[in-house]
Amino acid sequence: MKTLQTTLADAQKNGLDSALTELILALSETCKAISAKVARGAMAGVLGAAGTENVQGEDQKKLDVITNDMLLEDLAKTGVVAAMASEELDEISPVPEAGNAPYLVLFDPLDGSSNIDVNVSIGTIFSVLKRPEGALCEASFLQAGTSQVAAGYVVYGPQTQLVMTTGSGVHGFTLDPATGIFVLTNPSMKISSQTKEFAINMSNRRHWYSPIQRYIEELLEGKTGKRGKDFNMRWIASMVADVHRILNRGGIFMYPADARDPDKPGKLRLMYEANPMSFLVEQAGGASTNGRMRIMEIAPEKLHQRCAVVLGSEEEVKLVTGYHQQ
Ligand code: AHM
Ligand code: MG
Question: Residues lining ligand 1, CB < 6 A?
Fold first, then answer.
């Protein structure tokens, strides 16, 4: 039986940095603890609103705050993390006692906040960058997605699963609740290039720009329309769960920019959501763009910047991106 530990040990033999291994193992331990809290729900006192707002003006849930604190505390102790940035923090969180530690970690501690209180899958998303030379500041984090050395998520669903990449494929591990061990259950995950399934929040339809309007209209026409096949729709409203489905059976996921607020290109965040998920999707043979360009090549300007997202099965992503370019 292969586990997260043995898989990382093998990767280390093939050159994976031991500090990065340590970091990923520490992250997995924290996520195990988060999973336990999520599973106990009301009994662990983690449901409901925190009564605070994050830097983006969104209401925080108790679990947003609790998981953020857990990750900050545990990763600071590893000695290999120089600083962290989180969707739930206004500013970066340096770890002065870590000295010249080699890595920076960015995370969305609890993705899918609207699903916490209704017992629907939620997750933790992470992205790891190398610490650049010089003094640590926000700019240290503003590296393109192509610079990520590891990325992944843990989905807290019917099973708790950790899915990650260090740049040589995507591997999925299921937490065995009996032993507390992440077991390799989904080695070398691959996204089919074709699909008949799409994910988008249809309630925003009236706000979309014309390329997305056109694309979705063509999908909805089904067998007798231009595409000549029927498409199915899924929208979980937890990006981790939607991406997890796509990594398992293909599909296309979109959270496009729309006409509501031209200063906000979409809802999702480049550094905590779009980049790590793009790294996973590309490593699994899929594609990921903001409608116009490869997400991982976007030069970040701000830590909390938003990003339109079109990712999943390559042929569909290419089609949507092509519609934007026309
Ligand atoms: P969150 O990080 O505050 O939970 O927001 C991100 C989530 C994604 O997981 C999901 O794809 C999207 O928001 C759903 O948005 P909507 O509620 O507009 O459908
Ligand atoms: Mg999120």
Answer: 58, 87, 108, 111-114, 201, 237-239, 255, 267
Long-range contacts of 290-294 (CB under 8 A, 24+ apart): 290/257, 290/265, 290/266, 291/211, 291/212, 291/256, 291/257, 291/320, 291/321, 291/324, 292/321, 292/324, 292/325
Ligand 1 atom with minimal separation from the 87 CA? 2
Task: Scan for tokens 């494929």, then name that residue.
Answer: 169
Residue 123 CA, closest ligand 1 atom number: 9
What pLDDT does 58 receive? 82
188/173 Cα distance (integer angstroms): 11
Nearest ligand, CA 112: 1
Closest residue by CA, ligand 1 atom 5: 112
Q: How far is the CA of 190 from the centre of ligand 2 (A)?
A: 23
- CB atoms within 5 A of ion ligand 2 belong to 108, 111
pLDDT tens column, 80-102:
999 999 999 999 999 999 989 99
pLDDT band with cut points at 50, 70 and 90 for residue 60:
confident
Q: Which domains are seen in the chain, by residue range?
A: 4-186 (3.30.540.10), 197-325 (3.40.190.80)
Q: How does residue 8 score in pLDDT terms, banded at 50, 70 and 90?
A: very high
Closest CA to 67 of 35, 22, 94: 35
pTM over 0.85: yes
Res 262 pLDDT > 90? no
CA distance 125 to 107: 5
Helices (H), the chain: 4-13, 18-40, 62-77, 138-141, 210-221, 239-249, 275-283, 314-325
Token output for 182: 């992440």
Q: How far is the CA of 125 from the centre of ligand 2 (A)?
A: 8
